[in-house]
Amino acid sequence: MRKLNRYVARSVAGAIAMVLIVLLSLDFVVSMIDQLGSLRDNYNVYEALIYVLYSTPGQVYEYMPYATLIGCLVGLGILAGSSELVVMRAAGVSTGRISWMVLKPVFIFIAAGLLLGEYVTPYTDQVAESRRAIALERQTIQHQQGIWSREGDDFLHVNAILPNGVLYGVTRYRFNEDRELEQASYSRQATYMGGHWQEESVATTYFDGDRTRTGETLLRRWDTSLTPNLFNIMALPPKGLSISNLFYYTNFLREQNLDASDYSLAFWEKALQPLATASLVLIAISFVFGPLRSVTMGQRIFTGVVFGIVFRLSQALLGPSSLVFGFPPILAVLAPIVFCFGLGLYLLKRAG
Q1: Which of 34, 155, 305, 318 could be a cystine partner for 332, CB 3.0 to 4.6 Å?
Q2: What is the pLDDT of residues 187-217, one digit of tens each?
Q3: Rounded to whole angstroms, how far apart are CA atoms 168 and 170?
Q4: pLDDT tens digit string along 89-145?
Q5: Closest C-alpha among 118, 110, 111 to residue 241
């Protein structure tokens, strides 16, 4: 039985890895073509290549559930096409046992996806976006991209944030109690020194009634409660954050009586992704034993792609719907997963 376990695991794991490589290769080509249209001055082909490579771990995380779905259809389809599944069933191996053989290697990919999403992709995505923003500094300022934040009467805008506690292009606006602008400053770089930020090459404009005056400072201390961790969280969209940072920032926003629905939805999508992957694998197994038992490999792959697209669209529709209609985001994320589990178990029961 151990040899049979290893044989099924190799077939399924190899197929999943192959599908993942194909998806990443296609994504790499499309992303490079897209970035070539943004080439400017410092943002050359080399920087575009670095940007795409740093974005790759995030794409691995995004494609993992769908690669397992199609990979399981391919791996089991090969076994079904050579009648090896029929031989296993004839030898007394139940569909439940075969399903468990398939799920074992899938758990490795699920664990790898969790580790990527928690420890790798938040860092690589931030580095990618920061390098791109720095290379496109002029265009970034012109189009007012970057990060906005508020602390008391101060509003600030940051062009780029590096994960090691370095900010580029920090613009700060200070208003008085009458909402009149008192001063505006721009520093080319700010570095976190452990308890405070140190701004470099600071240009400040002071507004005094109808008159203005300017001043320049080589170094300036900036005391604020905004830490590098908070900047790192604000630098990425909710889906680019780790599960722990999403949990932390969601609670932070709720404590500040701010809307945290986007971050709550992203938290449940990431936290429940292992269940989503397992449900899609169960669908793949039930399809091979059921309606796709005697079709061609191309039809199996097409069915997997279509079902993956439907699953993704259902999540994409139900998630925003929970924000609009006010029902818990966890229900929006769980609904497609529960449906897949129910359909998979039903088809397996019929096939068994």
Answers
A1: 318
A2: 999 999 988 999 999 999 999 877 889 999 9
A3: 6
A4: 888 888 888 889 999 999 999 999 999 999 999 999 988 988 887 787 644 333 346
A5: 118
Is residue 153 one of the residues assigned to a domain?
yes
Q: Are residues 114 and 152 in the same domain?
A: no
The C-alpha R_g of the chain, in whole angstroms, comes to: 26
pLDDT tens-digit series, residues 83-101: 888 888 888 888 888 889 9
CA atoms within 13 A on the CB side of 239: 8
Residue 253 belongs to some domain of the structure = no
Residues 277 and 191 grouped into a single domain: no
Residue 83: both structure tokens together: 């009648």
Which residue reads 């009634």 in tokens?
A: 209
Contacts of 338 (CB under 8 A, 6+ apart): 279
Distance CA 300, CA 278 (A): 18
Q: For 217-232, what is the mean pLDDT?
A: 88
pLDDT at 144: 44
In the chain, count of helices (H) and strands (E)?
A: 12, 6
Q: What is the DSSP letter of 43?
A: B
Q: What is the pTM of this model?
A: 0.79
Nearest by Cα to 172 from 189, 191, 158: 158
